[in-house]
Amino acid sequence: MEQSRIPLPKHINDFLDWIDVEKGLSSKTQENYRRFLEKFLVWLKNNNLNGILPHQLTPEHIWDYRVHLSRHSPTRNNKPLRKTTQNYYLIALRAFLGYFVAKDIVSLPPDKITLSRPDKEKTVKFLTLEQLNKLFLAPDTSTIQGIRDRTILETFFSTGMRVSELTSLNLEQIRIMPGAKDLELGIVGKGGRARTVYFSKNAIGWLEKYISARTIDNDKEKALFINYSGKKAASRRLTPRAIEKNMKKYIISAGLPITTTPHVLRHSFATDLLTQGVDLRVVQEFLGHKNILATQIYTHVTNKRLRDIHRQFHGGNDQNS
């Protein structure tokens, strides 16, 4: 049957294959898209639209679905869906329509689906340099576990890596030349996107100490960051959960906000660069964001910096004029 004559619901599996093969999205993202689109399919069925064809979908249908999300989709505690959550469903539907464009199937253009304005502007949590120094000093570096944890914290702040990217590192990837002041490493991040991360002088110094301690310990583990407790026969690669648990211990001992997570160190990395005047698009490359919109959560930094520059240099701020 010609694809344009196939009802919308029957395109879902082909769409999921497409975002896997063509877009390279992770299995978790595919799972989320499937879940978000299931609500749309239920809405179609409840409105006797189960047989609707791609070209028959109209802006009016989209509007009615948005009203349904806003007013008739309560959460478990019987409250309406938040605007940000509604947007997840709309983003999935927009991606679904993008599939039709890619396959030359006539349908409603994806840009006809606009997103809701969030309930409130998302704020980014980050640590100041003073707070970071307190955190770095928290591990007991007289032990190999403490050296490992100090190295992990320094690496997070130096590279801006996600916790899953850091835990996937292998020892053989780290090649530090004697007296090296720079170290760069190619990694594959979210969505299968490759990028280069860079290690600061401090991070390199702690990596050298940690690798040296591991050499003395004479372990043969493949993973860069390993566990020193539990069953030796099991995989000793540190998990994201283990790193988060260790970090919470240091956060408490350093007297820092309990909401601090490894991702907050990624935010701190980006915030530090922007504070130093690095362009937002360069920070996008450092973070491995596919879209600049993902990096724009850091506009709180650029906005403050622009305000400070305006106050310092704009002639209209001269009290003597």
UniProtKB/TrEMBL annotation:
Subcellular location(s) of the protein: Cytoplasm
Broad class of where this protein is predominantly found: cytoplasm
Superkingdom of the organism of origin: Bacteria
Residue span, Core-binding (CB) domain: 6-101
CDD domains documented for this protein: INT_XerDC_C
Any one GO molecular-function label of the UniProt entry: DNA binding
Keywords: Cell cycle, Cell division, Chromosome partition, Cytoplasm, DNA integration, DNA recombination, DNA-binding
A GO BP entry: DNA recombination
GO cellular component: cytoplasm
Protein name as it appears in the record: Tyrosine recombinase XerC
